[in-house]
Amino acid sequence: MRQHKLRVYPSKETLNRQDQLAWKMAEICTDNATIKDDVIDMVINRVIDNASVAIAAANRRPVASARSMALAHPRAGGATVFGMPNDQKFSCEWAAWANGTAVRELDYHDTFLAADYSHPGDNIPPILAVAQQMGKTGKDFIRGAVAGYELHVDLVKAICLHKHKKDHIAHLAPASAGGIGALLNLPTEIVYQAIQQAVHVSFTTRQSRKGEISSWKAYAPAHAGKLAIEAADRCMRGEGAPSPIYEGEDSVIAYMLDGKDGQYLVTLPETGEEKRAILETYTKEHSAEYQSQALIDLAARMKTKITNFEDIKEIVIHTSHHTHYVIGTGANDPQKMDPKASRETLDHSIMYIFAVALQDGTWHHVDSYAPERANRPDTVRLWNKIRTVEDAKWTEMYHDQDPNKKRFGGRVEIIFNNGEKLVDELGVANAHPAGAKPFKRADYIRKFDTLTSEIITKDERNRFISLCERLPELTATEIQQLNVQIPIDKLINNKRDQKGIF
After folding, report:
1. Can you give the pTM of this predicted structure?
2. Rounded to an integer, what distance in angstroms lies between the CA atom of residue 143 and that of residue 181?
3. Which residues form a coiled coil (predicted)?
């Protein structure tokens, strides 16, 4: 690995493009390094994982709306849209928009947490859509996905966006642009410009994840993927980008991040070195914000030692800075304690999540968020007894540079009315690579079967899983079939409508 020192360069100080972060990112996308079997296997797992959560969300309003927009952009030889028949193709940027929204809607696919947050699986929809439209093979797609994951994880390790209230799609868009460049085997110069364009247009604020969280939380990564495709297209036509995008006097570091004196250390693979960052990412067993995964498992464990929830006086969750301030009481969001809050808001309330998981001993992607569940009086009473506090020990473990030592959970104290306490802790979710039951291929397929049950046919299930498991061998024709079809009568918004502008 190589370390790149990143800082602001005044306009009077020349920075050669070969020394810019965007160029170094482009170099590793275009080096055609060897990809080992364990990395390929994880790409397959994540394609299955993305499809499972996308199909489960297919008829939710944001996903149906995004699909409607895609259906207004048919294109012969284009890309497929989740749920739609494989013989219907659409412009790849709009297919990526629809598919990216479907993947993100339930907040149920993979994650990587370090200096910032990320869902690296969000790279797959735009890269796959371009692969389908451009007639690329399974091997080409894997090369693109591996590069997208590498850039995304490397940026998330080094640069905190949340500190400056910037949304984490600012790391996703350049990763997707680089992945598309790797997929298409573009020259380094073009990938460099595409990454810069993608960075420039993707900085947005974190209000999308604050207060009353709306459907934009699902749309945001799809928007980043669409921006990445458009950036690559422009640069393939010979267009350039604002440069240097990270280091410029009026650019990202200077005005979006730590300011003119800001410095970062970004670790990237050497040119020609294997890209293995996808193996550091982890999926979700439960449909909720990743920092709640271990706490859901812990709640289920602690439930077995509680006979009467009304005997609880208070629950204190000692956890990391990020968990406390993003999904805990440190966020100071009254909506996180509101039984009438949106699903997106409840998904970002560890107080609600822990209360329901403690009472039920499990978590369900639909039932646990149902209005009748959120408004249950005994749940509301318990919910309001829960608070979070930041614990320096958990914050330190959250940021540990060794992926085997990272911890995302917390220590929970349940205090009863009689003064007794029940105390337990869990650092990583059961499904985490370092957890009690790490997810393997069979678990990804089981998750797919659970989420798509009664939505797709058995034949469709078998067809799709078979394609996924042969991903490295897929021809361009087969890649164009790498989509999950839902019987058309079960899919709302399955025809072009006249509700919007398109």
Report:
1. 0.91
2. 10
3. none
